[in-house]
Amino acid sequence: MPAITFRGIRKSYGDTPVIHEFSTEIPDREFLVLLGPSGCGKSTMLRMIAGLIDITGGDLLFDGQRVNDLEPKQRNIAFVFQSYALYPHKTVRANIAFPLLMSRFRWWQHIPIVGMIARWRAMRDPAIATRIEHIAETMELTPYLDRRPRTLSGGQRQRVALARALVREPSVYLLDEPLSNLDAKLRAQMRTEITALHRRVGASFIYVTHDQVEAMTMGTRIILLNDGVVQQSGTPQEIYDEPANTFVARFIGSPAMNLLPVTVQDGQATINGGTTVPATGVPDGSALLGVRAEKVRVAATGPGMPARVAVVERLGAETVVGFRLGLAPNSEEFGAAAVRDLHYAKLPGDAGLAVDDECRVLLDLSGACWFDSHSGARIGARKDVRVA
Ligand code: ADP
């Protein structure tokens, strides 16, 4: 199974750069997630790895060998797309068998009747039949082998698409938003299945998504892209705990990290013109204090900064409370204005707070981050954190 190396990889369409120079090493058997908003260049990266589009500059290496000029089929990769792209007129068995048959295909099998007989015989080859049955069992598709895709649910179809990718035993799997057509419950189930599959097959997976929950739950490593520029590369926990900049801080986590504007002087940060907290190592001037919602405590009374509740989302085991610092009444604006200056707390159980309530806010500053308010870069970022 190859380790994959990107060495100064670039991609442009005409004069328009889509991927800016990018270098990283993906160790063997990694579950790498390429994450970012729509249009940031995730699929372009995946297509370059697959060999479906040219690489404008730099070297792509599989186990130290340059593969820029190799044809897709010489790269031993399997591609699973967002749309299942199954053959509707073929059974599940024939769909799964297809890549195996294609790898044996000869020119004369294009001749109508000869080709049909050859495929019919190949399907009865015990090696192929056993392989399909084994994969079907792994993917829990055995009862459906003789059905056609249209008689299956979305999740079952996606499993057939995965089984079809698995059947060739490739060394790298490329998955392009494979769950985005599924409903929320099925997505959660398939996330678990794909992670288990990764552990079982012991190959490298490269998975594209715009969904940070998928990235956090499935990835052993995440590369977060924005506008073709890598913002950060690291384990899910590193990216969550130590975002390289405010883009990463806002993109990862639900709700996103709170970014409170502060004024720093002599190692003390003043929040909202009132409360002062220690800001060791943060230069004087304006900055942003990043605190995760689970580190914010909101209560109806007691110590803390005065604030007003603007949003209450009850999720059962926990409640997300959106608030604004200060006691000004909530505005009645809609859209972007309605969420401006909102900060969030994630509280266990039912917080006992309602919209428009006055409340008190306490910040637990363990694990807090500081950001430059102009560049957005993290202040005091660890040296091994990749900053764009
Ligand atoms: P993502 O997968 O992150 O949504 P893509 O990799 O599909 O993003 O696209 C990245 C950027 O490249 C987008 O701005 C898109 O419009 C542009 N792009 C993609 N394919 C082409 C193409 N064939 N010609 C020109 N521009 C393209």
Give structural notes:
Keywords: ATP-binding, Cell membrane, Membrane, Nucleotide-binding, Translocase, Transport. Pfam families: ABC_tran (PF00005), OB_MalK (PF17912). GO terms for molecular function: ATP binding. It comes from Dactylosporangium fulvum. The chain has 388 residues and is of the alpha+beta class. It has two domains: 4-241, Rossmann fold, CATH 3.40.50; 256-384, OB fold (Dihydrolipoamide Acetyltransferase, E2P) (Beta Barrel). The chain has ten helices and 20 strands. The chain has a six-stranded mixed β-sheet with strand order 6-7-8-3-9-10, sandwiched between helices. A five-stranded antiparallel β-sheet has the order 13-12-11-14-20. A five-stranded antiparallel β-sheet has the order 15-19-16-17-18, with no helix packed on it. The chain is elongated, with a radius of gyration of 26 Å. It starts with a strand and ends in a 16-residue tail after the last strand. Adenosine-5'-diphosphate (ADP) binds next to α1.
Question: In summary, what is this structure?
Answer:
By secondary structure, this protein is α+β, with helices and mostly antiparallel strands. It is 26% helix and 31% strand.
Element order: H for helix, E for strand? EEEHEEEHHHHEHEHEEHHEEEEEEEHEEE
Radius of gyration: 26 Å
| Helix content range | 25-40%
User: Which CATH class of the largest domain?
Assistant: Alpha Beta
Which CATH-level-2 architecture of the largest domain? 3-Layer(aba) Sandwich
| Strand line-up of the largest beta sheet | 6-7-8-3-9-10
